[in-house]
Specification:
Helix content is 24%, strand content 17%. By secondary structure, the chain is α+β, with helices and mostly antiparallel strands.
């Protein structure tokens, strides 16, 4: 998997699939990749993550890669507790 600069600006493109009860979610820009990854994992409805991708410094990361980045030891933000 490609490495990512967690401090670089990032863009998140949620899945464009329809029929979600959570309402429309569109493109979001973040000051850091770490914030975008946190949003994707902790705030995006789980059914919306498949098909979502993250773009950082012209590199794209799919849902699987976003999960791996969040779980990596180099992820700089505090993770939500999994109680």
């Amino acid at each position: 998997m490609s490495s990512v600069n967690f401090q670089a600006e990032a863009e998140l493109f949620p899945s464009r699939r329809r029929n979600y009860s959570s309402g429309p979610l569109g493109y979001k820009r973040f000051d850091s990749a770490a914030e975008a990854i946190r949003f994707a994992i902790e705030e995006l409805p789980p059914e919306r993550l498949p098909g979502t991708y993250l773009e950082v410094d012209e590199a794209r990361f799919d849902a699987t890669a976003i999960r791996r980045l969040y779980a990596s030891g180099s992820y700089p933000l505090k993770r939500r507790s999994s109680n």
